[in-house]
Amino acid sequence: MNKVTENLRKTAAKLLQDKEVDMVIGYGLGSEAVRTQPVFITSPDDVDKLVWNPFCVNGLTKYLSDMKDHPGKMAVVVKGCDSRGIYRLAQDSIIPRDKVVVIGIPCAGQLSYTKLASKIDVSGQLKDVEEKGEDVVIKTSKGDFTVKKSEVFLDKCTTCEHHNPVVADHVVGDAINTCPTPDNYDEIKKYEAMSPEEKAKFWLSQFGRCIRCYACRNTCPGCTCRECVFDAIKPDWVGKEIDVSENELFHLTRAFHLAGRCVDCGECDRVCPMDIPIRLLNKKLLKDCKELFNMETPGSTEEGGSVIGQYRLEDPEEFM
Amino acid sequence: MADKSLKKDQVKNLLNKIAQSNQLIAPILSDGITLFKPVQSGEGVVLDYQNAVVPPKDFFFPQSEKMFSYDMSDPSWAIKPEEGVPNRVLFGARPCDVKSILLLDKVFDAEFRDDFYIDKRNKTTIVAISCNDCRHTCFCGAFGISPGKAEGADLLLTDLGDRYLVEVLTDKGETLAANCSDLFSNDDGSGAAAKEKATAPALEKQMKIDLEGVKAKLDNMFDHPMWAAESLRCIGCGTCTFVCPTCHCFDIVDFNNQSSVGYRYRCADSCQFANFTRAAGGHQPRPSKMERTRQRFMHKLRYFVDRYGDFGCVGCGRCLEKCPVNLDIAQIINKVKEVG
Ligand code: SF4
Ligand code: SF4
Ligand code: SF4
Ligand code: SF4
Ligand code: SF4
């Protein structure tokens, strides 16, 4: 067992024993070697179910919103990127900051299930993971596999802004000192350079295959409306029909609702079963907000506030 | 009809020929993922894929489909029915997906006859293809499906390296084969043994899930605490149900843009959505994730058996691969067997 897992279990056990919280939301072993599943621990006897390894891809903050009526306090495990979701939820008044105990884990990067499954047999049970320089050795009941980390990182981790959580009541694990690789938005610039026709062709083909499962919305810490506009029946702002025009309306509406609010956790992009690059839309909005309004990544600080929700005299208005 | 043989380099010709007189639906690589699409010719068709992200169910039960349209400025107020589909060939379907269509038949073409479905079903010839390799999430064997058999298909192709073995399974298949007979030769008798060898790796690789006793156990598990525990991590998306080849729930909606013309359509709905069971007046028989998670697994593994005598899952593995929170039906089956 790694040190972080050990300390995580100790921290969780203490929080539960001291009745500081009555639930700890974290990661447990998954049904396959390179997956974890969110677990909800309510007794100190069960903390052994908690793990920390490079397969802790899920963002867990959205569960706080689902359980906002939960009577007691809850602890949640966050990585750097997810930690911004804590401030998102607090700033949106979804869940008061003092109802949550944040267990922050400095994170060097998470590995993609899809990428791993295309390289190795992931179907066994995980026995151990060892990091060896550039490589990771994944020991499973179906054999040991050595993989080059850089080939299987989640895309978002290669330009991670906060390896260390921006907020944590308890930090488990050593701080990560590698300098964050700044995102120079090269990929976004490539899309910006396209002609309107090329952009339309690319995006309509992507939107066309959306199956409107709403996994992207349901996992998003910024999507917390009591009734989502896409669920409204009367009036049905966006039809339930699955076709490219309704799908486009869905995607663009969702993008605008997240403009200046998306914490860039990348979860929507990860969960999409149809591999629609949702993150490109969010990144474009982030880039614009940064360039036009000098905004930091939403959720980075306690104060924050949304670009759309505030007004400053010096705001640019060249588009008016 | 005796088994046939098709040279590898003739597949494209076969597809082109089929496309001349039918709508051809086949798996292609589209922006990095494999999907079934209507295609004009054999160009770009991939047959060595491992399960399309969404099943070909869409061509029998589309995710959205118009039922009829109307124009109220027309004095007769006539309802205009939708036109049916042309004759079609679904090419390259995997055995699990073919079996799922037999299961959909039990829903849409039995006690209640669904004309929309039946029209598409009648006009479609299914050419299946055996699996030589499979995904690590496949477990069709649990449901008596085999990588080298395709009950429900009209023709079955098996990749034997330099050629395909072509088995003619139905009259519809025979008609199709007869129309393309110039492309086939007779199998020299070695096909059957070669097929067994070719499909053995898939059989070996797939997950072994044993369903013995699961249904009987579920009969008494409606109130089991397991459902609440497992449902906690579910985010209530429609992924598992929309990628499932056997899920068939739908909603019916009228579209009228405040003008005299409009139409009625139906579209797939998901029992995992909170508003799926919300009734007029606000009544909600499945108020929490617990009821919704239970419903999905119970429907597949218990209610479907009660109603139709077969499991409502074909072990394609899509839902467990795509579920964002690793709520894995194979793991659930094993847990059902373990819990007290
Ligand atoms: S983006 Fe950063 S904090 Fe988030 S998973 Fe990747 S490396 Fe970890
Ligand atoms: S997760 Fe993907 S397929 Fe599902 S609604 Fe979002 S964009 Fe569409
Ligand atoms: S829009 Fe996507 S990246 Fe942004 S906060 Fe929501 S889930 Fe995270
Ligand atoms: S089981 Fe998984 S895929 Fe299905 S609704 Fe829940 S989270 Fe979504
Ligand atoms: S329940 Fe899952 S494994 Fe079974 S048929 Fe549906 S998608 Fe495939």
Mind explaining what this structure looks like?
- The complex is a heterodimer of chains A (320) and B (340).
- Chain A contains 11 helices and 8 strands.
- Chain A has 320 residues and is α/β, with parallel strands linked by helices.
- Chain A folds into 2 domains: 3-171, no CATH class; 186-309, no CATH class.
- In chain A, strand 5 and strand 6 form a beta hairpin.
- In chain A, helix 7 (196-208) packs across helix 9 (244-258) and helix 9 packs parallel to helix 11 (278-293).
- The longest helix of chain A is centred in the last third of the chain and has 16 residues, at 278-293.
- Chain A is globular and about 60 Å long.
- In chain A, 45% of the residues are buried.
- By secondary structure, chain B is an alpha+beta fold.
- Chain B has 2 domains: 4-56 and 84-205, no CATH class; 214-247 and 271-338, no CATH class.
- Chain B has 11 helices and 12 strands.
- Chain B has helices spanning 11-21, 95-108, 115-122, 171-179, 191-205, 214-218, 226-231, 239-242, 289-308, 318-322, 329-338; strands spanning 4-7, 23-30, 33-39, 64-71, 79-81, 88-93, 124-129, 155-159, 163-168, 184-186, 250-256, 261-268.
- In chain B, a hairpin with a 2-residue loop joins strand 2 and strand 3.
- The longest helix of chain B is centred in the C-terminal third of the chain and has 20 residues, at 289-308.
- Chain B is globular, with a radius of gyration of 22 Å.
- Classes of the chains: A alpha/beta (320), B alpha+beta (340).
- At the A-B interface, strand 2, helix 2 and helix 8 of A face strand 11 and strand 12 of B.
- Bound molecules: iron/sulfur cluster (SF4) (5 copies).
- The site of one iron/sulfur cluster (SF4) has 13 residues of chain A, from helix 8.
